């Protein structure tokens, strides 16, 4: 993929639990999109990069059936 886009992916050593946990021990502050952007910006700052990629998940009851849990992943690219 790096050959096509001319870029690669580097993992930033960030404690993402600081942005909120699934169990709710640490509450998420903001929407999933806002938190994903904050994670990307934190990685950009840590690695000294101008572009960042991050995700945030949101798990809850399925709004249609209410019988199953649904996971929605929000992925952002911050430039």
Features:
79 residues, globular, alpha+beta, single chain
Please describe the topology of this protein.
Elements lengths: L1 H4 L26 H16 L4 E10 L7 E10 L1
Antiparallel strand pairs: 1-2
Question: Care to give the gist of this entry?
Answer:
This protein is α+β, with helices and mostly antiparallel strands and 79 residues long.
Explain this structure.
The protein is of the alpha+beta class and 79 residues long. It has one domain (2-78). The chain is built from two helices and two strands, in the order ααββ. The protein has helices at 2-5, 32-47; strands spanning 52-61, 69-78. Strands 1-2 form a two-stranded antiparallel ribbon. β1 (52-61) and β2 form a beta hairpin. It is globular and about 45 Å long.
Distance between the termini: 18 Å
User: How many strand elements?
Assistant: 2
Profile the largest sheet.
Answer: 2 strands, antiparallel
Shape: globular
Count of the separate structural domains: 1
Which sequence of strands runs across the widest sheet? 1-2
What order do the helices and strands follow? HHEE
Category by helix and strand content: alpha+beta
Strand content: 25-35%
Number of helices: 2
Give the proportion of residues in helices.
25-40%
Oligomeric assembly: single chain
Uncertain segments: none
Radius of gyration: 15 Å
Mean pLDDT: 91
């Amino acid at each position: 993929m790096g050959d096509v886009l001319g870029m690669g992916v580097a993992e930033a050593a960030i404690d993402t639990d600081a942005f909120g946990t699934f169990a709710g021990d640490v509450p998420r502050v903001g929407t999933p999109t806002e938190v994903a952007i904050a994670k990307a910006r934190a990685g950009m700052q840590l690695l000294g990069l101008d572009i960042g990629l991050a995700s945030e998940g949101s798990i809850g009851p399925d709004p249609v059936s209410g019988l199953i849990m649904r996971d929605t992943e929000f992925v952002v690219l911050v430039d």
